[in-house]
Structures are given as structure tokens and as C-alpha cells.
Amino acid sequence: MSLHVKICGLTTRETLDAALAAGADMVGFVFFPPSPRHLGLEAARELGLAAKGRALKVALTVDAGDTTIENIIETLRPDLLQLHGHEGVARVRDLKSRFGLPVMKAIPVATAADLAPLAGYAAVCDRILFDARAPKGATRPGGLGATFDWHLLTSLALERPFMVSGGLSIDNVAEAVRITRADGVDVSSGVERAPGVKDCDMIREFVRAARATEELSSR
Predict the structure, then answer these.
(1) Is the separation of the CB atoms in 174 and 156 below 8 Å?
(2) Is the per-residue pLDDT at 73 higher than 90?
(3) d(CA 195, CA 197)
(4) Number of domains in the chain
């Protein structure tokens, strides 16, 4: 199994370089002001140029308007849009048509009932991301360091590729992949020493731990 590893919420050249050198397949940039990982457009331009051709660039937005997304695309030149808000199926379809980019939709999960919208999104998205549902009153939908019950995904009949996120770390990424059989993992707070402050050593160790699951699955 070829596992896609995504390091999300990168904000500095040092941590981006660490992710790229470690072999991350995707690097994520957050455009959502309430997040401690929010990235301004000028910083995004610089980091985007550094990542070009070395990993897929992912632009994460939360219920953003067309103008905001257009500015992000013009600046970052992302390879993939990650929609992490309440965007419905029609909105996903419209964004794909308008901007011509692949879309990954995040689906928040706490119980089996949260998977009800999956079929609709799978029909229009290029990739699905299952993340832990944020608690009531949270100011942002992800990056909170919480996990969900991965066993909820064991009986999925999903033709689209999917990733798992939410509370992943060096210690549990192998278990997450083993249970879900996801083709990708997405980490943010699990490689930070403080909210929004990535740690280069933790990034390298996470990628190494994730890659080790490929070796186990090939045996």
C-alpha cells in the first residue's frame, strides 16, 4: 500500500523544508484567521514557491467565499483545495467547476450517523478526509488534537481515496492506518510543541512512523 502523508498547518520555511526533506507527499497551508496556523497571502506565496514540484500543495479553507479562494489560488497555486467547513455537495461541485482544481472534503466524525452525507460528497470530491468532530463551541473545525473511533470506518465501501486526521501522532499513526486502511494520513497538532508551532524533529519522526506502516502492510 502506498500511503500519502500530509503535514498540515505549515507556516515557516524551516518546517516546510523539514516536511519536504522527510518525504511528505502533501503540505497543507491554512487560510482561516481563527486558527493559530493561519497563513497570510504573502507568506503563502513564498512557501508555495519553495514547495513547487516537491509535494502537492493543499490550501485549507473554511466556508470561504469565491473571492477569498480566488486570491489564495492566485497566490499559492495549490494542487488541491481542502474544504473544512460546512460546504455542501452543491458548493463542492460549484468550486470544482469554477476553479478547475481537485477537491478534498473534510467530514467531521463522532458517531456512525456522521457518515450519512458521505455518498453525496464521494460523488463529487476527488478525496475524502475523515476528521474528529470538533466539540460544541469550538472556534475552529480541526487541528484540535482529538481523535475519533477509527473503527467507524472499517466497513466503508468507498471508491474515492480517503485520508484520516484528528489527533494523529507518532504513537498512534500505525494503529490508525491498520484499522481504517486509509490511503493517507494528515497531521497538524501532532507535530507541534505549541499550538501553531511545528517541530522539525516531530515532523521527521511522524513521516518515518507513517512510512513504517507501508512496510508492515507489504509483508
Answers:
(1) no
(2) yes
(3) 6
(4) 1
CA 46 to chain centre: 20
CATH number at residue 11: 3.20.20.70
Structural domain including 164 reads: 4-217
Angle between helices 200-217 and 13-22 (to 10 degrees): 20
For all residues of the chain together, what is the average pLDDT?
93
- Residues recognised as catalytic: 8, 131
CA–chain centroid gap for 73, Å, is: 17
Q: Please report which residue ranges of the chain form alpha helices under DSSP H.
A: 13-22, 41-51, 66-76, 89-99, 118-122, 173-180, 200-217
Q: Give the tens place of pLDDT for each residue, 32-58.
A: 999 999 999 999 999 999 999 999 999
**pLDDT score, position 48:** 98
Q: Whole-structure pTM over 0.90, yes or no?
A: yes
Classify burial at 172, counting beta carbons within 10 Å of its beta carbon; exposed 0-12, middle 13-18, buried 19 or more: middle
Q: Output the pLDDT for position 213.
A: 86
